[in-house]
Every structure is written in structure tokens, then in C-alpha cells.
Amino acid sequence: MASTLVQNTVTAAPEHESFQNFFESWISEQNRDLQELISASQARDADRNNHHEESSSRSLQTCKVEAGNQEQVVEENVVRPLIDRVVRHYENYYRIKHEWVQKDVLSMLTPSWRSSLEEAFLWIGGWRPSMAFHLLYSKAGIQLEARLADIIRGLSTGDLADLSASQLANVDELHRRTLREEKELTEKMAEHQETVADSSMVELSHVVTELIRSGESNQNNDDELEDRIESTLAPKEAGLENIMEKADDLRVRTLKGVIDILTPSQAVDFLIAAAELHLRLHDWGKKKDMNQNNQVQDPQGTHDHQYIGSPVAATAGGSGEEP
Q: Tens digit of pLDDT for each residue in 146-199?
């Protein structure tokens, strides 16, 4: 079954550009998207606060209607196009990633451009799809607590604290479907990893060991052996490529599925939370790796002081990736 990613592949990665360079550019793009999302969220909150203040002297119902009408206009003309653009940026990321998975799936499964902290939480080369729901529930809980006074007064918050019963039911259904697919892929990955010990691999490893032990080596034997190694490993890499493609497809469908359930205003808050978590984990991980490298290179700690209390200095000394 062709995946959504393959069907939508329209943007090619330049041959001369490594995926790490693309990733660094995409991180910068995500940071720009985050700033626009935050601006949209702040403008929404300012408008809502103004309407809440007016409701103290005017009919609450009248203010609700006026606020709803104005918010709908803003959502259709400003917020929805912004959300669509951010989602397209995610889709483009996975289109380019798909091209590089086809070129070198092994490096995409163990990405050197990610920090050790990020890599520790990767699932088949990326974020675990079910994490989107934990992110949604966490952000909704935080906003519910912050907006509790308004909710008690019967005022609409318009954010994730305002999730309706039908939205929660749809989120739960999507969550269950995602977990099933995630489990299937996890099991498929486990089964495929076990093939590294199948008869072809065991036999090949024995043949190579015997040749090394006997010292029987010449150009013809070496070329023939290299061809055999490549042909034996090829289906292993192809299997990994297929699984990773399906995992990325599930990641994209999960993201879009959650956004489709939310109102544009709520989707902005969800996308803000997703970008903030990704960018901050990336920053924290880079800094931890850099500090660890400094400790290895300078076990006496004579240079540790140059980064204490200086995030800018710490970032400047990192891998070169944009925050």
C-alpha cells in the first residue's frame, strides 16, 4: 500500500545538500512558525479579554455572540491559513526525509544531527505518534487550570481548556486507532530485527570468519564476498526502509488527525506546544552533549566555567544546528 508520503512527494532534496543541513534549516523554519503561532495566540487572548471585560457591563449572551462572530472572521482569514502553512512545513519535512530514507535508511534511523537526549526518546527514527495525545492532554490540563475562573463564570476560553465532549470522544477514538497501528509497527520492527540472525546471516558470518582465520584472501574472493554481503544485507535495509516509511506516514496522519478535531484556535495552541517541546528538547540535548564532550576533553573541568549561565555561549559551541 502506497503511503501518503510517497503519494505527496513533490519537493526534491538537492543532491548536494545533506539531510543534516536540511534539518538545521527546518529547525529555523519551525522556530519562525512558532513565533507566528505565538503572535496569533496572543492576539486571540487579547481580544477575548476585551470581550470578557465588556461582559461585566453588557449582556453576557450578546458579548458571546459578538466575540464568536469576530473570532470566526479572524480564524478564517488569519489563523486557518497560518495552520495550513505550518502543517505543510511538517509535510515537506517528511517528504524530504522520505527521499533520504531511500538513499540511506541506516543513518536516518540513527541521526547524528539529533542530540543524545532526543535519540533516547525516538521511535523508529522519529517521535512516537501516541505522544501527540499526551501532549494534547497535558496542554489542555495546564490551560484548564489557568482559565478555571473564566470557565466557572461561564465564559468561553477558546483554547484547549474548551474541548467539547464530542471533541474528546473523537480524540479518544483517534488515540485508540493510532495505538493499534503503532503497536503493529513496533511488532513488525521487532520481527524484522530478529532477521539479523536468520540462516543467511549466520552462514555468511561463518564464511567470512573462516576466510579471515585461514588468511585466504585475494581480489576475486574479496569482490565476490562483498557482493554476497551486499546482497544479503539489501533486503534487511529494504525492510527497515518500508517500516520507517510507514512510521513517518503514521506520524503525519496523527498530527493532521488531531488538528482536524480541534478548532483553529485550539490547533494554534497544540502546534505551539508541539514546536516548543521539540525545539527546547533539541536545545537542552545539544547543551548536555556539549557539556559532556567538554568534560571528556577536559576532565579537570578547567573550561567548564565558560558555559555556566550563558546559554548563548553554550549554543555557539554546539554542533552548528540552529535553535
A: 888 877 777 777 889 999 999 999 999 999 999 999 999 999 999 999 999 999
Q: Which residues of 94-124 are buried (b: 16+ CB within 10 A; e: fewer)?
A: bbbbbbbbeeebebbbebebbbebbeeeebb
Separation between Cα atoms, residue 92 and residue 97, nearest integer Å: 8
First to last CA, the chain: 37
pLDDT exceeds 90 at position 75: no
Q: Find out whether 236 and 196 touch, Cβ atoms under 8 Å.
A: yes
pLDDT at 143 over 50: yes
* Lookup: cell for 250: 503514521
Looking at residues 252-264, what average pLDDT do you find? 97
268-307: pLDDT as tens digits: 999 999 999 999 999 999 999 999 888 877 766 554 444 4
1, three cell numbers: 500500500
3-state helix, strand, coil in the chain (%, to 5): 80, 0, 20
Mean pLDDT over 47-66 rounds to: 55
On whether the pTM is more than 0.85, the answer is no
CB-facing half-sphere around the CA of 241: CA atoms within 13 A = 16
At 93, the pLDDT band (50, 70, 90 cuts) reads: very high
Phi, psi of 180 (to 5 degrees): -65, -45
Distance from C-alpha of 193 to C-alpha of 29, rounded to nearest angstrom: 35
Q: How far is CA 108 from CA 236, 237, 249, in A?
A: 15, 11, 15
Query: Cell triple for residue 283?
Result: 536545545
Which grid coordinates belong to 75? Answer: 480564524
Grid coordinates belonging to 76: 478564517
- 192 Cα distance to chain centroid: 24
Read off the amino acid at residue 111. Answer: P
Helices (H), 75-194: 80-103, 105-109, 116-120, 131-146, 148-152, 165-194
Distance CA(47)–CA(235), nearest Å, equals 57
CA 276 to chain centre: 11
